[in-house]
């Protein structure tokens, strides 16, 4: 392994890794809008084939059946890092699923073969880390990416108004929108709405008091929450909770410990 990869850590760029083993090769995959880009490695046909794809940020929820998947590893990038690592503006991937080879050329196809040859999750993560390290050291990170990440931290904290975020960062709202388009893939106002949606989804795991959830998640009222659910998810909150099961996953640390 070269010196660049030796000093590289996935944790700087990645916020979640899930190892997925669907029951009997049948899975139902879902993605809710959250302003994130993910890299998905799938093993198909009992290990004989596989693919590596990039799923861009979603403006609407995606519910998809995924037959024939033996196992998968899902790597979720932190907001603002996909462009330097993948080599394209984030909004070029919005609402799209693109083979990594289309973005990286031959190295993308070579990585898929390397991951197929890996036998355990730690080995998969090591090979992914090496490939991303080469990309990170070979590409230029624009100033707009750092600006977008700072804005994300504010919007995922207590700040809800995009204009206030722009003022705190010393830029115009127009400048902030351009930075988000290039580095997050959606606008800052839509990103702020996905933050509320994700908060509500997490709260709904332990409470069915939709009025309280709406208030705590930052909505004006329950009707506002229901309206956003319909727009982003295509379902009411109640119908969303009754949806079919999705890919079971396990965190990277636990998966590595069990492998």
General description of the model:
The protein is of the alpha+beta class and 259 residues long. Helix content is 48%, strand content 17%. It has 13 helices and eight strands. The longest helix is centred in the middle third of the chain and has 18 residues, at 121-138. It is globular, with a radius of gyration of 19 Å. Residues 1-7 and 247-259 have low confidence and may be disordered.
Topology, pairings included?
Blueprint: H1 3-6, E1 14-20, E2 28-31, E3 38-44, E4 49-55, E5 62-65, E6 69-77, H2 82-86, E7 97-99, H3 100-104, H4 106-117, H5 121-138, H6 143-155, H7 162-169, H8 173-183, H9 188-204, H10 210-217, H11 222-233, H12 237-241, E8 249-251, H13 252-258
Antiparallel strand pairs: 1-6, 1-8, 2-5, 3-4, 3-6, 4-7
Helix pairs in contact: 4-5, 6-7, 6-8, 9-10, 9-11
> Helical residue percent?
40-55%
Q: Oligomer, anyone?
A: single chain
* Strand order, sheet with most strands: 7-4-3-6-1-8
The SSE string, one letter per element, is HEEEEEEHEHHHHHHHHHHEH
Query: What do the pLDDT scores average to?
Result: 85
Summed up, the helix count is 13
What general outline do the C-alpha atoms trace?
A: globular
pLDDT < 50 stretches: 1-7, 247-259
| Major sheet description | 6 strands, antiparallel
Q: Any idea what the radius of gyration is?
A: 19 Å
Rounded to the nearest angstrom, the distance between the terminal CA atoms is 23 Å
Alpha-beta classification: alpha+beta
Beta-strand residue fraction: 15-25%
Overall strand count = 8
